[in-house]
């Protein structure tokens, strides 16, 4: 969790370092950004990696460094595109004369220029080079062009340079660069997106989000599962963090990165997720069940791997209806948490309204997973929002982050007249339900 008063709490920042001797100062900059509460993804050019190895940045950021524009994530998405879309801000420090020339010309020859071209987030650039290089008319023209893009330039300082000369070109102090990042996110230039469209309207709220699919064991090796990657839940969690919420993610099987600012509790099976939901619900303001929870599981799981030639016949039984049970628990809490369900359908959403009434949720997000761009493993979604006593509200195809922001707008409106959670209510747990152990658990 971020320290109180952290200026970048819940923000995702891309830190790009290019091939300058000042690349070693990017390590200090990384520490300062994380100290301000940011989740930092480091991007290195190949020449920057010659000055400071990726392992240093990976150790301090807790994330693999991106250095190849062609790198793919495990789910086959392009890594720098995903990073660019998730970023609330980008800072390039140090920025060499070569990198600024490439960026000014729109050349995507390295992972940092590629990410900047793919992102609409505010960009901060901190140049570092020899005094003569910085004073050259070509560099001055490139700096002016970057400013015309809306990029915020943190001018280099005058001082001793690697060449032995003294003059302008020394990388600005990391503290000044952090201040520029904070300022850029607070007042982004026209044409860039704000990192938190609705400000901090969820500050002080506790939100529990389930993500991914559940895995119901057949034996120690095999399981019944589904195609959910967890991206929708991860985007809801990230968007809620941006708006100031305290977020806990109940993670089933996920194949996407989860925001490090969130608390993560492993819940691989439906039973595990049910226990975690009922344990956390009394202290929550909102429960968002975005996970794809299995409807059935094997009645009996083998304790040993079933041999291939055994040809077992699986007898299935229904799993717990987590959302319906949570609704019953929520009825006894004051204030009642906002409950949001997700319904993945095929071919028609006709059953969704009845499902919303039966489970007594405040909002139900339904989608047809057979529609192009709306199923599992894609970055977009086309959903219909269902609320009690209201006509279904179809939303257009949009990115899952945009769906998350729009959904949180509705959740924030429901929360506005309600007092925050009652800490005393956290003692009112369902019988025999224990909170999943560590505050953060790897999934």
Quick rundown:
Helices cover 30% and strands 20% of the residues.
Walk me through this protein's architecture.
The protein has 443 residues and is an alpha/beta fold. It folds into 2 domains: 12-186, Rossmann fold (3-Layer(aba) Sandwich), CATH 3.40.50; 206-427, Rossmann fold (3-Layer(aba) Sandwich), CATH 3.40.50.10300. Helices cover 30% and strands 20% of the residues. It contains 14 helices and 21 strands. It has helices spanning 25-35, 46-51, 54-61, 79-86, 97-104, 111-118, 131-135, 137-148, 174-186, 231-242, 270-280, 322-330, 352-359, 400-415; strands at 12-17, 39-44, 89-95, 123-127, 152-153, 157-160, 166-170, 206-211, 216-217, 223-224, 246-251, 263-266, 286-289, 296-298, 316-318, 338-345, 363-368, 380-381, 383-386, 393-394, 398-399. It has an 8-stranded mixed sheet, sandwiched between helices. It has a 5-stranded parallel sheet with strand order 2-1-3-4-5, sandwiched between helices. A two-stranded antiparallel sheet has the order 6-7. Helix 13 (352-359) links the parallel strand 16 (338-345) and strand 17 (363-368). Helix 1 (25-35) packs parallel to helix 3 and helix 1 (25-35) crosses helix 9 (174-186). The longest helix has 16 residues, at 400-415. The protein is elongated and about 75 Å long. The two termini are 18 Å apart. Residues 422-443 have low confidence and may be disordered.
């Amino acid at each position: 969790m971020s320290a109180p008063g952290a200026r970048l709490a819940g923000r995702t920042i891309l830190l790009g370092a290019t091939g300058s001797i000042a690349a070693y100062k990017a390590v200090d900059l990384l520490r300062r950004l994380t100290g301000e509460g940011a989740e930092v993804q480091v991007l290195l050019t190949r020449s920057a990696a010659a000055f400071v190895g990726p392992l240093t940045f990976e150790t301090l950021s807790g994330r693999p460094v991106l250095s190849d524009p062609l790198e793919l994530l495990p789910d086959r998405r392009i890594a720098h595109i995903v990073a660019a879309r998730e970023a609330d801000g980008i800072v390039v420090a140090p920025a060499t004369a070569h990198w600024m020339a490439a960026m000014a010309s729109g050349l995507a020859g390295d992972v940092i220029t590629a990410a900047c071209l793919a992102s609409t987030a505010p960009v901060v650039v901190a140049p570092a080079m020899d005094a003569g290089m910085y004073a050259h008319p070509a560099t001055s023209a490139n700096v002016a062009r970057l400013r015309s893009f809306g990029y915020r330039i943190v001018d280099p300082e005058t001082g001793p340079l690697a060449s032995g000369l003294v003059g302008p070109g020394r990388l600005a102090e990391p503290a000044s660069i952090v201040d520029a990042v904070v300022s850029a996110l607070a007042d982004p230039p026209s044409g860039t997106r704000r990192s938190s469209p609705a400000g901090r309207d969820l500050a002080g709220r506790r939100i529990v989000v389930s993500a991914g699919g559940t895995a119901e064991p057949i034996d120690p090796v095999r399981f019944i599962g589904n195609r959910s990657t967890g991206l929708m839940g991860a985007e809801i969690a990230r968007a809620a963090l941006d708006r100031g919420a305290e977020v806990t993610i109940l993670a089933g099987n996920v194949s996407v990165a989860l925001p490090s600012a969130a608390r993560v509790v492993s819940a691989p099976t439906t039973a595990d997720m049910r226990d975690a939901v009922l344990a956390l619900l009394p202290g929550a303001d909102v429960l968002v069940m975005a996970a794809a929870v299995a409807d059935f599981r094997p009645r009996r799981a083998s304790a040993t791997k079933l041999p291939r030639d055994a040809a077992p016949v699986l007898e299935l039984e229904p799993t717990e209806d987590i959302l319906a049970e949570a609704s019953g628990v929520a009825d006894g809490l004051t204030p009642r948490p906002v409950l949001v369900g997700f319904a993945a359908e095929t071919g028609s959403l006709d059953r969704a309204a009845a499902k919303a009434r039966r489970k007594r949720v405040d909002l139900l997000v339904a989608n047809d997973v057979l529609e192009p761009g709306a199923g599992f493993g894609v970055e977009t979604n086309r959903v219909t929002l269902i609320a009690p006593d209201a006509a279904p509200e179809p939303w257009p195809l949009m990115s899952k982050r945009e769906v998350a922001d729009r959904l949180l707008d509705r959740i924030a409106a429901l929360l506005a007249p309600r007092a925050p959670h009652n800490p005393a209510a956290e003692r009112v747990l369902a019988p025999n339900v224990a909170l999943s152990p560590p505050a953060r658990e790897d999934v």
